[in-house]
Amino acid sequence: MRNIIEGYDIYHGDDEAIPFTATVAGRTKGRPQNKNMSAAPPVVLRHVDGLFPTGSSAAQFQNWKAKQTILKGGDKYQHPHCDNAIVNSYANLDVFPFVCLHGFGVEAFSLWLLPNPLQRHYGFEHKFGPKNMLLMRGDFVHAGCPGTSSAPRGHIEFFPREATGWSRKKSFWNLKTTKIHPTFLWQKPTYPFGYPSASDPDINGDVTITYPPRLTRALRLPLTKKKCKRENIKWERESSHAKKLRRELCATINSQSW
Hints:
Layout lengths: L1 H5 L1 E4 L32 E5 L15 E9 L25 E5 L6 E5 L10 E5 L4 E5 L4 E2 L8 E9 L36 E2 L10 E2 L2 H7 L5 H7 L8 H15 L4
Antiparallel strand pairs: 1-2, 3-9, 4-7, 4-9, 5-6, 5-8, 10-11
């Protein structure tokens, strides 16, 4: 996370992605010591700049709060959402919270970008390469899952402290009494096209989010006569039972929180 803000050096031999096996913790408590103390210092191949100008307050990791969540598995069924604010909350700001998604350099991942659920439009799906990193403003609409494979996807959120130039007085991440948790929120007005169902917190406080297709089928709005005619689809009047079920499910979904 520090590398994204401040940049980093690439050394000889480290220019390729780190395999998952290299990140597995060993059984020893301490770090292995290098017995060859006379070894030559590593050769720097090049320096990769961080997101912000070198020397600026925004380019110092200490001026940001950062949290990470690892998503594993999935079925590519997710609602459109922003990761910490309603759409356009950070419009016209030079400093704002942002999100970084990545596949650890080894796993490709797909995302739906710019969905417009009010017009029944999913946006477009784009597949990012294993070494790609997607940076999004915290009020950017997107949707996606890490896929059905066992490889995870990294999800990092960065929240600016006042030292970076955050210009708004109030922010939940800068309150001393508030803990910052990585978020996967759905907020108005980005109504979902895949409806989430949140479980009750378990003993550790964890909540499981699922996207049952049956829930989405029941909650989706029927096509109008005009849209059916345009798409050459037979229009059928919605039953009173279906309307009642949708209202009941809407109330249930809107009451979910943690």
